[in-house]
Specification:
The chain is mainly α and 261 residues long. The protein has one domain (4-254). It is built from 9 helices and no strands. The chain has helices spanning 4-32, 43-52, 56-80, 89-116, 124-136, 141-165, 180-208, 217-222, 229-251. The longest helix has 29 residues, at 4-32. It is globular, with a radius of gyration of 18 Å. The two termini are 21 Å apart. 44% of the residues are buried.
């Protein structure tokens, strides 16, 4: 009989696979489409593409489940320190970054579920705009939004550090393919740029210009479109990060939740 910890590990692995599908298609769509053809080039474009293939709805439901499982995995970091980063400033930096990642992947999971169930009327940008408006209408809403933005800056720094040092290999099985490290370097470098753009848009909307637009994943990449080579490099990096995530679905070392009790 499969215990709860084993079920959790399988859910997390499904999450890495779902993340891999999203990022691989995201990079592919950016590289093969113009801005006008692909909308904002974000989750809506990816899920629309999946919806058109045979069995697309089933794939979307699996993506929704996997992305939700991955979100739980990331949210377990600030909650119970699932990967033992510790309670010092450095450890909490990692854990806050994982918190932001968890929130972002919950939104992705919900979007995938909407497409799978045939309720994809609102775009990723519309949903984000509504969520930001709701936060800003709350007491201390601008503080909350600004803190989330800082969290994305912290996450961007963490991604950049991984891209530079290759420390991500410490949590990957030694039996992983030899090209895994190269994929990780490129993928984390691309995510550094994307997370920094998203973080700046959040801080700008919270504390500088309330009328500014918060960037989604697709919007962040699209904002680089006029920069030519940088846009192309980020798009390639995201595609490679998707392939990297698919490798992680098999070779990532997932902690045993039961041992943390």
């Amino acid at each position: 009989m499969v215990d709860k910890s084993e079920k959790f590990r399988w859910l997390v692995r499904l999450g890495f696979a779902a993340r891999g599908i999203v990022y691989t298609l995201l990079g592919y769509i950016f590289l093969t489409s113009s801005g006008g053809e692909s909308g904002d080039g974000g989750a809506k474009s990816v899920f629309s593409w999946i919806q058109e293939v045979p069995g697309g709805s089933i794939v979307l439901y699996l993506c929704a489940l996997g992305l939700f499982g991955y979100a739980l995995y990331r949210l377990a970091s600030p909650a119970i320190d699932i990967e033992n980063y510790g309670g010092d400033a450095k450890g909490w930096g990692h854990r806050i970054g994982h918190l932001c990642s968890g929130i972002a992947h919950i939104a992705l999971a919900f979007s995938a579920y909407q497409f799978a169930s045939g309720n994809e009327h609102s775009t990723e940008s519309d949903t984000t705009r509504q969520a930001v408006g709701g936060i800003l209408s709350m007491d201390f809403g601008s503080v909350i939004l600004g803190i989330v933005g800082i969290g994305f800056f912290i996450a961007a720094f963490a991604q950049g550090k991984k891209a530079w040092t290759g420390s991500f290999m410490n949590r990957i099985s030694a039996s992983a393919p030899s090209f895994t490290k190269a994929l990780g370097h490129a993928g984390y470098a691309a995510r550094t740029a994307v997370f920094a753009v998203i973080g700046w848009s959040l801080v700008n909307a919270a504390w500088i210009s309330s009328s500014s637009e918060v960037k989604t994943l697709g919007g962040a990449v699209n904002s680089l479109r006029d920069d030519g080579i940088w846009f192309t490099l980020v798009a390639i990096g995201l595609l490679l990060f998707g392939i990297f995530s698919l490798v992680l679905a098999r070779y990532r070392i997932v902690p045993d939740v039961e041992s943390l009790r």
